[in-house]
Amino acid sequence: MGACEGKQSISDMTSIMWPLKYNIFGINVSMTTYEEALRLIIEAAKKGIPAIVDHMPVHGLIEASRDFHLKSMMNNFDIVAPDGQPVRWALNLLYNIKLPDRVYGPELMLRLCRRAAEVGVGIYLYGSHPHVLEKLRANLIQRFSSLEVVGCESPPFRSLTEEEDKATVEKINRSNAGIVFLGLGCPKQEMFTYKHRHSINAVQVCVGAAFDFHSKEKKMAPAWMQRGSLEWLFRLIQEPRRLCSRYFITNTLFISKLLWQLSGMNKF
């Protein structure tokens, strides 16, 4: 169970050296930190190098491990950051790499916006509902006054037609955005990002619930719950009907799969 090569076809022709990845349940998760991910994404955005970035919580890890097509896509992302504390713990347990913290999508989004405002990189917001996008845009600009939000788009809640898809790609590219944040939910955002990995000339960063959190549509778990890997409990209390079965199933599967991989009986 060793490290996987961190580079891929999108990056082989560039000077960007993406983080090494390690196999968890068949998914190659990046050994990275906030500082490294921030530096690499901004570097790629400034150089105009297309790249694709995702954040892997427990739920996403379990879903990808059970879906061959999704697993194949995820293993071709430039960064698959350990979004959940249990995912970071799994990396440390399996490979003794001593990652000090996870790389939480909503937090990385804020750090990227702060640095993008400092260096003049434009951002594009893609996903969610129109009213959420408008509040998100306003909140980000209020927080980072020099941030350039070069576009916002709330796509229809259905598959795009070929013409709509082409128009979306053209609109994003015309905006000259260096970073495109996607808040479509898993796995829709990952599928969109992977499909357009060669056609969108920017770094695409899947951040999921960050749109709801930073627009203030939903509350984020307190820092102490995040540090203690109890964010799932906070969200369960907020949305018990929607999340009860998800967390029961995925948390159970995560523990059993981790024990199985630790035993060395299955290398996935």
Question: Topology, pairings included?
Answer:
Layout: E1 3-4, E2 21-24, E3 27-30, H1 34-47, E4 51-56, H2 58-65, H3 68-74, E5 79-82, H4 85-95, H5 105-119, E6 123-127, H6 130-143, E7 149-153, H7 162-174, E8 179-183, H8 188-195, E9 203-206, H9 210-214, H10 223-227, H11 231-238, H12 240-263
Parallel strand pairs: 4-5, 4-9, 6-7, 6-8, 8-9
Antiparallel strand pairs: 1-2, 2-3
Helix pairs in contact: 1-5, 2-12, 11-12
Short description:
The protein has 268 residues and is α/β, with parallel strands linked by helices. The chain has twelve helices and nine strands. The protein is globular and about 50 Å long.
Biggest beta sheet attributes: 6 strands, parallel
The CATH top-level class label = Alpha Beta
Secondary structure: helix percent: 40-55%
Gyration radius (Cα, Å) is 18 Å
N-C termini distance: 9 Å
Shape descriptor reads: globular
Strand content: 5-15%
Second CATH tier, the architecture: 3-Layer(aba) Sandwich
Number of domains: 1
Order of helices and strands: EEEHEHHEHHEHEHEHEHHHH
Count the beta strands. 9
